[in-house]
Structures are given as C-alpha cells and as structure tokens.
Amino acid sequence: MKHALQKGFTLIELMIVVAIIGILAAIALPWYQDYAVRAKMSEAVLAASQCRTAVSEVYQAKAGTALPAGGGWGCESATSTTQYVRGVQTDEKGAVQVTVHNISAAVEDKTVLLVPEVSDGKIVGWKCGPGTVDPKYLPGACRETGLKVGTLAPQLTDN
C-alpha cells in the first residue's frame, strides 16, 4: 500500500511553533519595556544637562567668590520643563536633581542626580547617577551610586 505524500504541517508542528513564539514574546516584551523606559530616562538626563551647563558657567564666573544658594543657579524649575521632567532642583554646591514623570509607574516621581566634581574651586567633571530611581532604568553612563546632595530648591509644585 502506498502512503499518501504529506503536504503542509501537522497539528503538533504548528503547536510547537506557537509555543516557541509565545516563549520568545514573554522574554522580549519585558526587555523592550525596560529599553523604552531607559530611552525616556535618557531624555530626562539630557534635560538636566542644560542645568549642568548653567552650573559650570556660574563656577567659572564666580571663581573664588561665594556660590549661589540652592535654587539660585538660574536653571531650576518647580514645574514641568519637558514631557518627562516634573522639575529641576539644585543645591548649594551645584548638584542637580531631576524629578521624572509620565514615563512609567516604575519611575514615576523618582529622581536622577548630576553632581559636579570640584577641585580648587573648578568643576573638573560630573557624576550622574540615581537619586531614588532604580539604576537599571538609567543610561549606562549614568549609574554612579552613592551620590549625595545638600538642601534642594525650589520645592516642586503639582502641575
């Protein structure tokens, strides 16, 4: 007896393919969601960079004289400055704290810090790291831990 030539896929083969696709989707979706949050957090860090520039300019202009108090560096905002930034605060040493929003529940109202490294009254570099946000959501160059800030100003307001 001749066996009929099989054309197409059997049901079990199709079920295996569907299972493999399901497993791949279960792995890829969380990775993509974390990637999307990191991309938006990068935008928030970029918004903080404007304040970093202002602080650097003040350090240069005030070399050897008194520095402004927290909130007096000229770049702060108690309200939203971008889609993902709720506010920008500074302390008396020029450290910048950015509070984020509208990104993800995991990072809502969490903070990112940019802290100047000062030597002989001049800024020689900046460190970027988490304030209250989980470091896994930050860009790779912004994961310095243990950063400290002083008294921050201005106080953030609800929008």
Automatic annotation (TrEMBL):
Assigned protein family: Belongs to the N-Me-Phe pilin family.
Keyword Membrane: yes
One Gene Ontology cellular component annotation held by this UniProt entry: pilus
Domain of life: Bacteria
GO process terms (BP): cell adhesion
Organism the protein comes from: Hylemonella gracilis ATCC 19624
Transmembrane helix keyword on record: yes
Keywords: Fimbrium, Membrane, Methylation, Transmembrane, Transmembrane helix
Transmembrane segments: 12-32
NCBIfam families: IV_pilin_GFxxxE
Organism lineage: Bacteria, Pseudomonadati, Pseudomonadota, Betaproteobacteria, Burkholderiales
Name of the protein described by the UniProt record: Methylation
Pfam family, one: Pilin
